[in-house]
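The freezer alarm interrupted the setup, so I double-checked each line after restarting. Inputs confirmed:
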Amino acid sequence: MWTVLRTTRTTATRFTRRQNQTQTATAVGTTTLQPDRWMSSAAQQEDPRDEDGYSDSCTDLRHSTPQQPVNHFATMGLTPQFVVDEQQLKQSYKRLMTSLHPDKHTLKSQSSQDESHDLASRVTLAYDVLRQSLSRASHLLELNGRGMEDTASGKLVGACFLMHVMDLREQIDEANDDASLKKLWDENEVRSQQVCDGLAEAFAQEDFDEALRLTGKLQYWNRVQETIREKIGSLHDA
Amino acid sequence: MLSFATRTASRSLAAHSVANPLTALSRRGYHENIVEHYENPRNVGSLDKNDESVGTGLVGAPACGDVMKLQIKVDENGMITESKFKTFGCGSAIASSSVATEWVKGKTVDDILAIQNADIAAHLKLPPVKLHCSMLAEDAIKAAVADWKVKQSSKKQEAA
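Predicted 3D structure, all chains:
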C-alpha cells in the first residue's frame, strides 16, 4: 500500500516539476524543447527523495492539488490558446517523439528509460487532445476551471438549438442515399466551422461562459457528423 | 473523458446491435431490463406539439451530444393519457426514456414530477457511467410538464 502511495506521489511531483519547466521555456520564448534535459533534472531530483522520505514531494503535492489537470499545451511546448497551428503542433509532436524513442535510451538506466516511456505516452495523449477542436476547447475550459458537467441537460444550449439537433438527427435517420447525406455533412461542416470561429473569439476574450456554451454546441455537431458517417457506412455495408 | 467513454460505448453498442444485439449487450454486462427496453422500446413516436393538451420536453446531453424528446398528453383532470418519446442516443438513454413514458401514463402531472432519475436507474440497473442517461429522462419529464403548464396558463389568459 505504501509503495503504491509513494509511487503516486512521485509521479505527481514529476508532473508538476516538468510542467513548470515547460511553462518557463514557453515564457522565455524557447521553442526548442529538450526532453533529455528535463529528464536528467527530474532524475537528479529523484534520488534524494527516495532517501529522505516524503517532505519534498508533500510540498509539491500541495501546489498541484486538488487534482490540477495536466496541461497538454505545456507538454507540447505551446501557449494555451484555442487557435493552434496544426503544422507547429505536428512538428512538436514529431520532434518530441523522435527524442523520446526507446532506441535512443537503451544505454540509460532503467528509471531513465521508464521516464522517457512515461513522457512519450503523455506527449501522445497531449497530441490527441490538442489536434481536435472539440477536445482542445474542453481542455482549455478544464484548465480554466470550467469543465463541462455531465449532468447539464438542455439549459446550456437552449431549446431552439436542441430542436434543430433533433430535426437534423431525424433527417439523417430518414436519409437513404449518399447525395442527401453528403448535403447534410457539408451543412454540418459549415456549422462546425462557425462554432469554431466563435470559440476562437470567446477564448481570446476570456469569455468562458460563451466558450462553454459553444463547446456544448460543437459536441452536438460532432455527434451529428459521427451519425452521418455511421449512416453512410451502414448504407454501404447493406 | 467520461463523454468519450459514453460515445465509444454507444457506438460499439450500435455496431454490435446489428449483428446480435442481445448477446453483445449481455456480454457487456447490461441488465436484461435495459436490453428489453432497448430491443422493444415502448411509445416511440411523436404527438402534435401544437396541441394545447400536449407538453413537449426536449433535452440533450452536451457531454455526449445526444438528444431526447418526451411528450405527454394530459386530459382535463390533469391525468396523462398518452406519452411518446424519440431519443437519438445510446441504449441506456433509449431504455431510460422508454421506461419514463411507461411510468408517466395514468398518473397526474404532479405525480410524475416526483419521478426520480434514481428510480429509473435502479429499475434498469444502469451502470454508474450511464447514470446521466436516467437524469436526462427525469429532466425530459420535468421539461414536458413545464411546457404543458405554460400552455395552460396562456390558455387561461386568453379565456380571461
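Quick read of the result. Chain A touches chain B at residues 148-154, 156-157, 159, 162-163, 165-166, 169-170, 173, 215-216, 219-224, 226-227, 230, 234 (CB under 8 Å).
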